Task: structure prediction
Amino acid sequence: MTYKITASNISCDGCVDTIKTELKKISGVESVEVNKATQEITVSSTTSKEHIVARLNEIGYPVQN
Result:
């Protein structure tokens, strides 16, 4: 599955790197792309969207509905 998620607090390249690093640690995550300008994260994964959203919230990038 491919998920498009909008999260807040993505303001710099360090944020992008942190998100990519942390999400790639999740079993089943195949790829992560982060658009800093739109604060959109695209994740290709076999794991649930809820698991990805929970991890983003844990690391300080709360998901917006």
